[in-house]
Protein 1
Amino acid sequence: MALFDIKLPETIRARLGLPQNDFKRQQERVLRKLLHKARFTEFGQQYRFDEIGLQENCVKLFQQKVPLFNYNKIYDAWWHRSLQGYPDVCWPGRIKYYALSSGTSEAASKYIPITNDLLKGNRVVMIRQILSLRNYNDIPVRSIGKGWLMLGGSTALQKGGGYYAGDLSGITAKKVPFWFQPFYKPGKKIARQRNWNRKLREIVKKAPEWDIGFIVGVPAWIQMCMEMIIEEYNLKTIHDIWPNLAFYVHGGVSFQPYKKSFEKLLAKPLTYIETYLASEGFFAYQDRPNSKGMRLVTNEHIFHEFIPFDDKNFDANGDPVENPQVLTVAEVEEHKDYVLVISTSAGAWRYIVGDTIRFTDKQRCEIVITGRTKHYLSLVGEHLSVENMNKAIELASSDMNISIPEFAVVGEPYQNLFAHHWYVACDDAVNAETLRFKIDDYLKQLNDDYATERGHALKEVFLDVLPEKTFIQFMRSLGKIGGQHKFPRVLKGKMLEDWKTFLANEMIPAKR
């Protein structure tokens, strides 16, 4: 059964026209649709959506009249009422589902509203991405109609006062459309499993019964799953049990640090397809081979804005200044970092996601994720991004022929000045001092500000090499084990305190 041959409902088929390149007009149309749908909500009434949506310059009026929100601000002012069961607060009707998200920096869970309108939009984007496989030359056609192993959160959601909460992947899997169910693995029974280790064991047990063509999930957990299957059945590679495995759909973190150890588990290359799917919505997807970026979704259910990520618009803590500059998709420039702001069909209005992105091809509206506002290190003006860190790790590990699947960096005081402290996961034999020197040297080449400050206030770089299991055990100690959770690349605040306490209690031996 070929996936491309599925007969989709007419309502979905009508919405699957190929994206056109008038992104400005598409986004204006999306905004008008959102304003019209939400005009009778409490939020829409306060900010006069009915009037804004009728004006020719509705985008500018929307930006002038509606303030920017971070999570705490919009939750305290609006979303808490939805959580208490009030209807028509920021989006029509009652909110029945919430995605629990703590990101990689905050300890407390966030309740992100999930509506049927948002899920429908996400599904349309997913179908577009599937159809874009036709853009790939020499794709293994026989793999397209095979099973999709989607490794995510449990579909057994927590019940609240009139709502359900859990991982977005669990909510999405719970509402898998009927036409996709024949392809979906691990199936509803295993997907309900709350215990992550038990879920993995059940997947391993079922693995020989499945013919998998696609795997979907966060790299660290997908890799762990494949390693368990290979060990259980005494295989050389995962292709010994799934010969038709040809595609890996990933997102959430950079895949590059995992690639070397990941590919040791394969007998033949996979086609890697990157996605940008967050709790707040499906923002972008890779729709052509060898592209440097992902196509931003501009014509469906999300209106995007962009704040330049620079010292004029953000303070040293990564928080926006009052009245920052905010641009539309028509006003951005290539090769500059922006913080993403979204308005969605779930009642997130001018919501600052916290991710930083960069346009690699404005004509195609293609972007890459460069990091998070809270995950930059700029103690003394070094402006070190997660993108810089990932690249330095990639280059250093390639030079030394080692695998570094996880790492984290801490900024700390040192001799009245400052230092960076790296914690690196590596199970290969490695000279920690050589690795430290290479990472530091590559960062100087990648980032002029870093190179300057290494001669001044950023006096030292420390590096500890730890077993990969240390990072997994730490996440398990926080209850953050599973398909949605990623190890933070920059440790600050409560997460840093927990990390130091964990290392001290575990007395982890490190190579330095």
Note: The first helix runs from residue 10 to 13.
Protein 2
Amino acid sequence: MSWEELARFDNQDIQVPRTEPLLADHHDHLVPWEKEPKRESRFVLQAGEYQNNQGEMYNLSVRKGTLNNEERYIINSHMIETIRMLESLPFPRHMKNVPLLAGSHHEKMDGTGYPLGTIASELPLPARAMAIADVFEALTSCDRPYKKAKKLSEALRIMSFMVRDNHLDGDLFELFLTSGVYLEFAQQNIDSSQIDDIHIEDYLAQS
């Protein structure tokens, strides 16, 4: 065992022999924070009591995906740090929205996004546009080790469903398609094998 794992064990002697279940959640599975996170009520994304929970039953009970709540917080909290770092900079008045714009591309139109849970009416236009750009780039990128890059038709289909579910701005998505920006980006930045036949009317109908 690593020294970090050993440090989570009590100093009490363990009596043997003893019965040990095949799968269990133990106190030593709870990983304390190395540094207690700063907690602000303005963020809907909040750190849990522990930095991680390696409980076997706990992790086997994850309903969707492969990450538990603690791991998902670590990944998603980059948005909180983005906002905090940018807010600490002395931007001129005409650039005061930079922290919000940079930290809002995981927000959703219905307010169920993060880190602030901001609804569409409170999101500046550039922030809503960045959300579309971020999703499109993530779906088509071929440098993500955890997933295979989507073909253009697959990416746009997924995005049309996100518009339908009120996660992306429908008007901006329509402009994204009708302006041809999606294709211009694809031709310059993704593998040619990903660019298949597209009929934008199919995705406009979905949205």
Note: The longest strand covers residues 30-31.
Protein 3
Amino acid sequence: MGCAEENPEEKPKCNPFGTRFLTDDAKVFEHNAWDDVEWSEEQQEEAKRIVENQQSMKVDEEKAMRLLSAPADQWDAFYAHNENRFFKDRNWLLKEFPELDVNEACNSENVTVKILEVGCGVGNTTFPLMQVNNSSSRLFLHSCDYAPNAIRVLKSQEAYDPEKMNAFVWDITQPTPEEAPAPESLDYIVCIYVLSAIHPDKIRKALSNLMSLLKPGGTLLLKDYGRYDLTQLRFKKDRLIEGNLYCRGDGTLVYFFEMEELEALLGEFKMKKKVMHVDRRLIVNRAKQVKMYRQWIQGKFLKPVEL
């Protein structure tokens, strides 16, 4: 399943985001979701107005300082309370990132494919990836999270296989721990809703740490929250910290990116864009006749081979 990579300005021709397009507004409630839905100018202006109004309802400074001083603590408390009962397995991974089915590469090239999943939580990406690639003896999956309770829960599950997996605690804004993979050893790094959990001032350090582990020719696969996603627009009082950085009710942080912003960040590390796309999806509650607009950013970036 190949995507358009020659012209990165194009949307992926393999269309991993779905092919149900809304061409008749009168039929909007016939399905639960529609793909690649463009916003009207009025919707864009309304979204900007909502975000501007949030500026007058910021989190108080003392609370903001507390949340920003130890962001991992909020996620650690989250996993201590929820264990593995909250998030669903990401069984959609291969639809958006078909590269992660490494069976063919492993079998044909007789090499070990090494992947690092960042922000692994309790294994909702880890275990689906291993299940897909269970016929391969040459996949090794590193999984890290900065919440010790997440790693504890992941490693306690029956499906955890230390012969094929290495789960470890790491705040990617800090130096790499001993358990981390060797420099320039990884074929893929997977970041799903990871960069949005980091303060914008620390993202460059996090990317520098990650890129040092990716081998020349290796690929960064990412998905994260887009600017004016429904989640951002629904935030009320005491959620905005600064800019486009918010805290959820449980204290965890979330930042909303523009596509050009993420591309520029990765460009600072000489990463070459293969594919980048804003996944605009209209989710429909047919029973309540409610429309919900979601926006995610998906990208694939290649680390150049030094000449």
Note: The domain at 25-37+70-237+252-302 is CATH 3.40.50.150 (Rossmann fold).
